[in-house]
Write a structure and sequence with these properties.
By secondary structure, the protein is an alpha/beta fold. α7 crosses α8. The two termini are 21 Å apart. Bound molecules: adenosine-5'-diphosphate. Adenosine-5'-diphosphate (ADP) binds next to α10 and α12.
């Protein structure tokens, strides 16, 4: 059975075709710059690379192009589109409605639309991706997997903000959390990897990429996470500020005659690593510059590490102790030096990195033998979870972890 997994952004469409018999990736691709000059598709099937630069005005065009590439006689992965049993879509915001992955119906689409104000950049694009698939292949079912869903188990004390209750009741203002599919995947995978039972487990998952978030996972359930109503809250990120006193927004807006939206745009797109270093949002550039003594890069790196350490300490408290700390995503999987800086001084918690084991980018325990807390690297695989959920949905099975 083959499932096509889609992650539709505002101007891009990433996809992966997976054969669920053996969970093998058959094709991977990206349609880039949808609706912008210079649009193109690139697909990889084994050694074969399919590339085409052509105008792609809308998401429906992107889907059509993707289906054409997948069935290309020389460089495709399918003889016939009927081989696709279902589409699995990543959807950013499920609000409070979606606590699980779900089969897309008209009601589900309406509810995704209701969440547009909560995910104004992503949800419309995600819905466009769903509708474009429905238009291209009306008989093929679509599954929706929400980035917020894993966090629905947070207690109210963790997800409420201390603003008047009416804003929760009227506007649904609360912490939702993001990267849920990744936190769910790595927290489950690390339990399998270490052979520890779900019940009684206390895990901190650190998804450190361009966008970063941490989650406290107890008995397999998320009980707190660092991102909030939007992905702006939490640790310092590539272009996002992370936590800041909301009065900063007011102060900048008043001082520089800017609107709240303009200041928030700065907080989302021009802050974090790039804002502090003035160099780059990419941790590789920051690390290289910091090693050359660039002051801004050194500070940006120190701030990133400091903010992550604070959450690890906080989540150890929230969990009542910690058994496992997991690193994942671009920085978490690939940057051994940052992992060491983050974990430095956590011996009092019983967590100690082994420098040699830490030289890995693959699934591994990187803690020392005498470390009470297991520290692990687990490469994330959100696509696999989306595919598994979609398969469960179309087979009418309960989604279990
Ligand atoms: P996104 O949040 O956009 O999915 P990623 O998870 O790919 O981002 O993370 C991007 C970050 O990961 C960048 O800061 C980059 O420096 C870092 N990164 C990605 N790949 C590597 C690598 N091979 N080596 C070191 N750092 C990497």
């Amino acid at each position: 059975m083959k499932i096509l997994i889609l992650n539709a952004g505002s101007s891009s469409l990433k996809y992966q075709l997976m054969d669920m018999d053996g969970e093998k990736i058959l094709a991977k691709g990206i349609v880039d710059r949808i609706g912008i000059d210079g649009s193109a598709i690139k697909q990889t099937v084994g050694e074969q690379v399919y590339k085409l630069a052509t105008p792609i005005p809308k998401h429906t065009d992107a889907i059509r192009l993707m289906l054409k590439a997948l069935t290309d006689p020389q460089k495709g992965a399918l003889k016939n589109l009927d081989e696709i049993s279902a589409f699995g879509h990543r959807v950013l915001h499920g609000g409070e409605k979606f606590i699980d992955s779900i089969l897309v119906t008209d009601e589900v689409k309406a509810a995704i639309r209701e969440c547009f104000p909560l995910g104004p950049l992503h949800n419309p694009a995600n819905l466009m991706g769903i509708e474009a698939c429905q238009e291209a292949m009306p008989q093929t079912p679509n599954g929706a997997v929400f980035d917020t869903a894993f966090h629905h188990t947070m207690p109210k004390s963790a997800f409420m903000y201390g603003v008047p209750m009416e804003y929760y009741k009227r506007l649904h203002i609360r912490r939702y959390g993001f990267h849920g599919t990744s936190h769910r995947y790595v927290s489950k995978r690390v339990r399998e990897f270490l052979g520890i039972p779900r019940e009684g487990s206390r895990i901190i998952t650190c998804h450190l990429g361009n966008g970063s978030s941490l989650a406290a996972v107890k008995d397999g359930k998320c009980i707190d996470t660092s991102m909030g109503l939007t992905p702006l809250e939490g640790v310092l990120m590539g272009t996002r500020s992370g936590n800041l006193d909301p009065a900063v927004v007011q102060y900048i807006a008043n001082s520089d005659s800017m609107t709240v939206n303009e200041v928030l745009n700065i907080c989302n797109k021009k802050s974090g690593l790039i804002g502090i270093s003035g160099l780059s949002s990419d941790m590789r550039d920051i690390e290289a510059a910091a090693n050359q003594g660039h002051e801004g890069a050194i500070l940006a790196q120190d701030m990133l590490v400091h903010s992550i350490r604070k959450y690890i300490g906080a989540y150890a408290a929230v969990l009542g102790g910690v058994d496992v700390i997991v690193f994942t995503a671009g920085i978490g999987e690939n940057n051994a030096a940052i992992r060491v800086s983050i974990m430095d001084g956590f011996e009092y918690l019983g967590a100690k990195v082994d420098p040699e084991r830490n030289q890995t980018r693959e699934e591994a325990v990187i803690s020392a033998d005498d470390s009470k807390v297991k520290i692990c690297v687990i490469p994330t695989n959100e696509e696999l979870l989306i595919a598994r959920d979609t398969l469960a949905i179309i087979e009418g099975r309960e989604i279990t972890d």
